[in-house]
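Subject: Sanity check before I submit

Could someone independently write out the structure tokens for this chain? I want to compare against mine line by line before I put it in a report. The sequence has 389 residues.
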Amino acid sequence: MYINIEVALKFLYVLIILNVVFAVVVYAMKIKRLRRTRIERRFEVKAKDYLTYVLVNLEGKEPLHAPPFSLNKVEQEVMQERLNDMIENFTGTPREKCIELCKRLGLVQYHLDRLKKSSYSVKIDAAYHLGCMRVQEAVPPLLELLRTHKLNSSLFVIARSIAKCARDEQDVKEMVQILLRHNKGFYDLLVDMIKEADIDHGALFAEFIQRESNAFIQIGLCGLKDYTEPTVASAVYRLIDSPDGTIQYKAVEIYLKSVHFIPRNVVQKLLQHPMDEVRVLAVQAIADLKLVTYIDVMRNALLDESKRVSDASAKGLLLLGEEGIATLCGAAAEVRGSEHGKYLQMLIEEEIKSLSIQLHDLDKLTRYNSLTYHYEKTLDKSKRIYRVV
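---
Independent answer below. Compare away.
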């Protein structure tokens, strides 16, 4: 029993010692943080005039001068953060002058030296700051660091820095190639990083979709999704027949967003596609582009086996002027009494109700007049819906 009490007391003493050590460490960290905060506040006052001078002279021809006072380590870190923010927020001459000031202050060389040190955390911090400052000479060591780095969040810090510092497209391609070895499919993130590089992004994405690798094609398509030039439609057209369903869908989406007119053979191909998502995109594009010549196609799509396609076609016909509205009301009258007919009639009535409270808008008033007229004419002869004069 005495032995058990002795063990318990020893265990209690150990716990007390550990608690005291933990409290001391936490207190020391708090003191250190408070000290840093005081230094930062004093520096804000000390450097206020100098930072104003920098902002005022960013557009001028003269290079920015170094501050007329020395900087301790904490002050240097604060100055680095301020200059990083300016570089991120400005472009052209102001950005170049801030980068040149970083070189004059020795910040570029300081972080290049840190990148060569053995400490992992120091290397990652140096990589981040070199990326912010767009230091092109940092690309080779950053690529080497990326090649040997394991898959974690810091991997993307290094990759983004490479994109920001990239000297040309080749640097970006090499960065992408290294990241794709992890085979994790973070295509949108890669596109976001590529856009940080000072290169022709559209040309690079267009090159990627010409490759045989599905991964590069996915990146290219993700990068081109916000482009609307007809040349983009031509570039992605061949991918509409890709055996990969995801690539097919993205290619169709970009193609339909980039064209001003869709050839009939392409419309027929898309509306016979096995994926109903693709058929929906085709029907919506016809409506958005106001392609009245394809009203017959839209009418046929009303009978599509997918309710999503049928729904998109019905809503699309409402946007295709008098002829589209007349076609929808006529189709609804032909299948009156069936489940589909009831659905089409309900859709038309909801549209009439919605338009009736927006008659201050001339376009909505015109559609309301047309829709109520054709609805009364074909579907509801017993109930008068008077046209607005």
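---
OP: Matches mine. For the report I'm noting this point. The CA atoms of residues 172 and 363 lie 48 Å apart.
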